[in-house]
Design a protein that fits this description.
- The complex is a heterodimer.
- Chain A is an alpha+beta fold.
- Chain A contains 2 helices and 9 strands, in the order ααβββββββββ.
- In chain A, a hairpin with a 4-residue loop joins strand 8 and strand 9.
- Chain A is extended, with a radius of gyration of 23 Å.
- By secondary structure, chain B is mainly beta.
- Chain B has one domain: Sandwich (Immunoglobulin-like).
- In chain B, 0% of the residues lie in helices and 52% in strands.
- Chain B is elongated and about 55 Å long.
- The chains are: A alpha+beta, B mainly beta.
- Strand 7 of chain A pairs antiparallel with strand 7 of chain B, so a sheet runs across the interface.
């Protein structure tokens, strides 16, 4: 029961405050989907510059593979797999794999942070592609070196990826 | 069902070998809507973070965007050193958290 010393006015004020607290996002993690929290719409060169700040990106096809279909029937679900030959020891491992799609309004699909406990530098996922164009994977080594491979994918039905 | 996490481990993992775990989270992973070319601003619901932990230690962490397909699926390698739990947690932009655990039994 309500304590008799609490007045009706106080009770109503408390109830209103509680209602406000529920309606308002309790913390930032509940409202991360607004455009302001998404990566900006930009060409892929701008994304590369934002992520890597002009650090040199070397061609990596000697140690890196990017598997993607030549023709994607549905741009909304395109399987991609990236593998980098790496011993994955604390001294020499792949720190992160970036998946970017050149023709998407927001080119970065995912950043995958790996540790030596993974044992391999590999990731596979299903991405959305807005249009026919290159898909690129960038591997960041523990010493900061960057390697990149590209594959061209023809998209039949756009995935309207944003 | 929203937020169901399915984990598939390969059969017969040898101790100390590298195995690849495949995980799917049932989730709409909303894409940005456009009206006459302009993006609509609202709180889109999509997975923005995935954490893979094995034996209680985080081994991989993924930052993901709306441009991952519906029902996001990932294949992640890990070295099966000890028997123990492999836990994969998905976080979305509405503050939800979806979790799946598989028991690794290397032989």
């Amino acid at each position: 029961m309500v304590d008799p010393r609490v007045t009706r006015r106080e009770l109503l004020a408390a109830a209103a405050a509680a209602g406000m607290a529920c309606a308002w996002p309790r913390n930032e993690s509940e409202a991360q989907g607004f455009l302001a929290n998404l990566a900006p719409e930009e060409p892929v060169e701008a994304t590369m510059k934002r992520l890597f700040a002009g650090r040199p990106v070397r061609e990596g096809s000697a140690v890196m593979t990017l598997e993607a279909p030549l023709i994607a029937e549905d741009g909304g679900n395109v399987p991609v797999a990236i593998e980098i030959k790496s011993p994955m020891t604390p001294q020499s491992h792949v720190k992160a794999i970036y998946i970017l799609s050149d023709k998407n309004p927001r080119p970065l699909n995912a950043k995958v942070n790996l540790t030596p406990a993974c044992g391999q530098a590999y990731v596979a996922t299903n991405i959305r592609l807005a249009d026919t164009g290159d898909v690129r994977a960038v591997a960041e080594m523990q010493d900061g070196a960057l390697l990149m491979v590209k594959r061209s994918v023809r998209v039949v039905v756009a995935g309207c990826a944003a | 069902m929203l937020g169901q996490v399915r984990i598939k481990l390969p059969a017969g993992i040898a101790r100390g070998s590298v195995a690849r775990v495949r995980v799917v989270c049932i989730h709409p992973n909303e894409r940005v809507e456009r009206q006459s070319g302009k993006s609509v601003d609202k709180n889109y619901r999509f997975i923005n973070r995935v954490v893979v932990s094995y034996l209680g230690r985080d081994i991989a962490e993924l930052d993901t965007a709306t441009s991952i397909g519906e029902n996001p699926a990932f294949t992640i390698p890990f070295r099966a050193t000890e028997p123990g739990p492999l836990k994969i947690t998905f976080f979305d932009t509405h503050g939800s958290r979806f979790e799946g655990t598989a028991e690794v039994r290397p032989s």
